[in-house]
Amino acid sequence: MLKHYLLGIALQCFCSFLFAQPCTLTQANLVGATNPYTIPAGTVLCITSNFCLGAASNFPGACANTGPSSLIINGVLRIAENVTFNFQGSINGSGEIQISDRGRISLFGSVNCSGGLQIKAVNRTLGSGTSTTVMTSPCTSGACEPTHADGYRPFGIVTPGLGYTTAGCILINYPSTGILVPVTFNSWQATAEGRGVRLNWSTASEQNNKGFEVQRSNVAGTWEFAGWVPSKAPEGNSASNLYYNFTDQQPGDLLSISYRLKQTDFDGNFKYSSLVRVEMLKAQDWRVRLEGCTVRVQVQAATTENVVIAIVGVSGNILHRKTYSLNAGSNTILIPAGNFSKGLQVVSMQRSGGELRREKILLK
Questions:
Q1: pLDDT in tens, 194-230
Q2: CA geometry: angle at 293 spanning 287 and 295, to 5°?
Q3: Domain limit, last residue, from 174, 208, 237
Q4: What number of other Cβ atoms are within 10 A of residue 262's Cβ?
């Protein structure tokens, strides 16, 4: 009893303020790279899991990763939630370092902000606005690390004695509300299939994402659980396109059903997506609409049957005529119309019992 109503979302974010650009590179791009390594303007390199670079960067432990000892950040270096980046070397440039909630940079070396480099961090103890902390130089112990009110230190030393020097660096703190974009969407769609509803969505990037709870509206107008889809991102972090689907086998009998996603982080925080809607067709009903250069015919069949669908111009010329097999439930028929003559056309459907229905469409 369902026909589908499709709503697409282009790069729709659950929340979008700071840290909103999708990741274009990850730490894998640093391994084995030549020195110096430049993150170009317009590029976002994301450290999506705990990562060390440099022989002494993980002291007293070892670090097997080799790569550049000089980072020039003209774009963005982003540290994901709950991720630590241990680095041995120098950092400078004109871009940004973005440290997500509970992320951290542990540095044995130097950071130079005189060229315009900004260091930004999420501070969950900050209710609104921003705050700044002048970074001490040199810093060789935990006592001089910039520290939030809850004791967390987003930027610091590798270990006592292996610290860093700074030049003109200020840590800019932002509240957690409206800062982190855990998931950036490419699309979010709903389609009726038979007696169920198929939901499809894709993400451009994910950070600390545990997964998605699919929710539907019920007859009382409240939201109820429909299913759970875990994140496909390794450890919840990804800079690549990921594709998801879920079929709701019990959508209920509402005339119109709305769906949303409740995206949940590993730390328990969650955000809601925008809504997509599925509208019901009554038994034996049909609907015709034009989508671009395609005629979309939706038919609700009680049983399997054959129907003849024709498209006829106002002058009587037959543009399309074909027999289609319908399954019990919702059926969608797509008819390419790019080569049809423009103007008013009549779409007709004749059922096996002889019933004839007509709808007019205007091809532009």
A1: 667 889 999 988 888 899 999 988 766 778 999 999 9
A2: 20
A3: 174
A4: 17
Question: Are both 203 and 305 inside the same structural domain?
Answer: no
Tally of domains within the chain: 3
**Contacting residues for 169 by C-beta, under 8 A, at least 6 apart:** 111, 112, 113, 117, 119, 134, 135, 137
2, 281 contact by CB (below 8 A): yes
325: CATH: 2.60.40.2550
Query: What are the residues whose beta carbons fall under 8 Å from the beta carbon of 193, sequence distance 6 or more?
Result: 4, 247, 330
pLDDT, tens digit, for every residue of 270-320?
788 888 887 766 677 787 888 778 888 888 888 888 999 999 987 888 999
Q: How far is CA 52 from CA 105, 138, 243, 300, in A?
A: 10, 22, 30, 58
pLDDT of residue 220: 67
CATH code assigned at 252: 2.60.40.10
Rounded to whole angstroms, how far apart are CA atoms 319 and 336?
11
Tell me which DSSP letter residue 266 carries.
T
pLDDT at position 293, please? 83
Residue type, 237: N
Residue-range definition of the domain harbouring residue 144: 25-174
- Residue 328 in domain: yes
- Shared domain for 218 and 299, answered yes or no, is no
301-315 burial, b at 16+ Cβ within 10 Å, e below that, comes to beeebebebbbbbee
